[in-house]
Amino acid sequence: MASWDGNKNQWGAQPNYDANYQSVYQPGPTPQYGQPAYPEPSGPPPAEYGGDYKSPYEGDRFKPKKKVNDIFFLIFFILQFAGFVVLSAISISEWIKLGGLGGGVGGGNGKTGSSITLNYHTVYLLLLTTAVALFFSTLYLILIRAFTKIVMHITLVLTIALNIGIAIYYWITKYWSGAIIFTIIAILSVLAYWGYRSRIPLASLLLQVVMDVAKHHKSVYVVAFLALILQAALSVWFTFTTIATYTKWTPGNPSCSTGTSCSSGKVAGLIFYETFSFLWTSQVVANVALATMAGGPFGSWYYFGPKEQGNMPKHPTLSAFVRASTLSLGSIAFGSLIVTILELIKMLLSIARNNANAEGHPVEACLALCAECFIGCIEGLVQYFNRYAYIEIALYGKSYLNAAKDTWGLFMDRGIDALVNDSLVNMTLTWGAYSVGLLSSLFAYVYLRATHPAYNVDGQYTAPVILFSFLIGLQCALTLGSAIEAGVSTIFVGLGEDPQVLAIRAPELFGLIASTYPQVVQGVQRV
Known about the structure:
The chain has helices spanning 71-97, 120-146, 148-172, 176-197, 200-215, 219-249, 264-304, 316-325, 329-358, 362-396, 400-414, 416-422, 425-451, 462-497, 499-505, 507-516.
């Protein structure tokens, strides 16, 4: 284990953890962070810590076996991505040959390009939408750090207001099935508010600690921004490909007169495949970034101490990225595929619900909505659990199933499931991502209304353009938020394995967790 020198404490004194909390991560001899409930040991943990202490390299941690895990899913992922590349090349080459059907930036009063389908005007619109998403994603992260408690309170209030607003809208529009379900959700969210509100101090302190650690490990934000840029580029590529697909295979386009088989069914099938590929690839990019940060700066900080103490391995972030993008890529693709399939099922149920509602079948619409909510809950649980499995993969190089099994065992053994479920961090970041997605789609809608492209004279392409814009904003914000999620989740996993280490890294946070969730720090004697 790293040196347990009590004089090398990196946390500055702060009597309160509120919205005015300042950076507390200061390498070298400084006063302790807060007034911890547990004094910092001056040497290796003594026997009364319950024998929970483990070496940083325990169980091949940070030194996984050089073995490619889940190779079937690795091959499947590579093949589907290769298929997307080929399809994109074919459709975009034809689209370029046809001049993109015209269009451009700005208003044209219905004269911006062809009136048949999407064109360059849409490309410029979604490029601008990507820039808007990048801006709002960064701004939200800055606001979280500056006003942690306030943002969390606002998040709770907005979540309740959104549920109430949706319920009211459905009652007004006489969409009875949706109105009943969302009324129940709204009532439950109001009742849950008081329970969540009492847990804001722990969640806000946790967020602040993680962001302060990231501040002194610049590689966290380097990885996050590189992943964000890659996600933005992937979103732009997906945008070009879908527009080119519409252009090449929509009946009535110039390419159909050259022998190309065109049909609405073919367009729907290709768009479905492209959406599947985009969602899966996007998930993999975000999760590789998460594994890189968890197995690199955050994991090394927790188990070895801050880099200024000199015990941290050399280039931990680079080493973690190499492991995540090679030996463990199949395992990450496996977990990401499960979430992607659930997301696609939810999208199909949403389409079925809208069609049933439009055709005046309220029973079918209600059943579809219930199924959609059920799949959404399962998807959320899988995403939640996967994050911790990816950390096990990042630290130990396990296969996905072994990582999932060990993660579940770790949660049940330490009772850490209660702490994770009570954390508001994920809600705060997820709400921010949805907010960025909504702002991005609002920008796209306003742009369409202001520029009047020829292909959208009757508004037939407003919905898909807004949907694409929402996906772009959502994915960009989720990728940037993964930097914080990686740190929070790594601390949770570390708590399950070596809880006493947190008493040295962040004493006040450890004391608050110990007083709120004593089962999480079992084996650590109270002094």
